[in-house]
Amino acid sequence: MSTTVETISAAARTAPAAVIVAIDGPSGTGKSSTSKAVAAHLGLSYLDTGAQYRAITWWMLNNGIDVHDAAEVATAVDKPVIVSGTDPTAPTITVDGEDAAGPIRTQEVTSKVSAVSAVPEVRARITELQRSIAASAESGIVVEGRDIGTTVLPDADLKVFLTASPEARAARRSGEIKGSDLASTKEALVKRDAADSSRKTSPLAKADDAVEVDTTELSLQQVIECVVTLVEEKRAAK
User: pLDDT by residue (tens digit) across 64-88?
Assistant: First the structure.
C-alpha cells in the first residue's frame, strides 16, 4: 500500500501542471493551425470556438431563421444541441447529432457568422458552453477564438494574441480556398475584422495581459515553437 501511495505521489509531482491557454486574433493569423499543434505537442485539449459560432449559424440558416433579425435569432438560440470534440488531432463538432465539420465551412456560413455572433443571446449561450468545456479539461486546454482572453476565460493562465498584416492573412486564406481571388479575400477579411471589432458584445480585442505575436514574417512552425515556449514557461512557473 505504501509503495502504491508513493508511486502515485511521485507521478503527481512529475505531471505537468494543467494550464488554460487563450489564443485570440483575427482570421488568417494561424490561430487554428497553431492552437491544434500546440495542444497536440503538450498533451492538452483543444477547442475551436469559431466552429461553434459557425455551427449555430449553419443551424439557423438550415431552419429558416432570418440571421439578420436579432430578435428571431435570440428566440431560437437554445434549440440546437452543439457538441465539440476536443482532441487536437481530430477535433469534431456536431449539431443535433449530425457531423457539421464540413458544412460550417461554406461561404454562405462564413458570410453570415458575424451577424449571428453579434447577437448577445448567442454569445451568452456559446460562452457558457465554452467555459464548461474548459473547466472539464483535466490536463488543460488551448482555446482559440476572438474574445477568449477578454471575455470567455479572462483568468486564463496564458493569453496569446496573434496578428498579421491583411496582405499576409489574405494570402494564407486564399491558399486554403482553391480558386479564391486574393483581392476579394482581403476585402472580406477586413470587412469581418471591422464587424467583429465593433460589435457591442464581446468584440475582437487584445487582452491587456496578452502576449502579442505578429505572424506576418513567421513560418507556421516558428509560431508554434514560440507559443509552446510560452506555455512551457507558464507551466514551470505554476
Answer: 999 999 999 999 999 999 999 999 9
The domain ranges of the chain are 19-231
Cα 113 to Cα 99: distance, rounded to the nearest angstrom = 18
The answer to whether 30 and 144 have CB atoms below 8 angstroms apart is: no
Name which of 35, 69, 11 is nearest 158 in CA terms: 35
In the block, residue with C-alpha cell 479572462: 154
CATH number of this structure's domain 19-231: 3.40.50.300
Reduced to 3 states (helix: H, G, I; strand: E, B; else coil), residue 65 is: coil
Question: CA–CA separation, 32 vs 23, rounded Å?
Answer: 9
Instruction: With residue 92 as reference, give the H or E element that holds it.
Output: strand 92-95
Question: How far apart are the C-alpha atoms of 137 and 127, rounded to whole Å?
Answer: 16
Q: 22: which strand partners?
A: 143, 159
Query: What sign does the CA torsion over 83, 87, 92, 97 have?
Result: negative
Residues 6+ apart with CB under 8 A from 17: 140, 235, 238
Interval 29-56 mean pLDDT: 96
Name the grid cell of 56: 449555430
Single pTM value for the model: 0.86
pLDDT value, residue 238: 78
% of the chain with per-residue pLDDT over 90? 71
Do residues 152 and 48 touch, judged by C-beta distance below 8 A?
no
Spatial distance between the Cα atoms of 18 and 12, rounded to a whole number of angstroms: 12
Kindly report the number of other CB atoms within 10 A of residue 101's CB atom: 16
Cell reading at 46 = 483543444
